[in-house]
Design brief:
- The chain is an all-alpha fold and 79 residues long.
- Helix 1 runs antiparallel to helix 2.
- It is flat and about 40 Å long.
- The chain starts with 6 loop residues before the first helix and ends with a helix.
Length: 79
Amino acid sequence: MQFSLDPGVMVAFVMITTRLVTVFVVAPPCSGALMPNRMRIAIAAGLGVAMAPGSSTAVDGVIPTDIIDKVLAFAGATA
């Protein structure tokens, strides 16, 4: 049995899940003791799985992963 995963979908999943976990940890409705950490991560991962296939393509069909270069360029342009 073989599985093949599109790298673009995996990058999209990781990016979406990271953003959602951050929101669930920081946002006031979700950051209280009412929702355990495991549940926050599980919900974020589930939403990431659901959203990744639709988000895996960008304008040119490639997800930009060179964010560090862009941030440094922006910081240099505004400094």
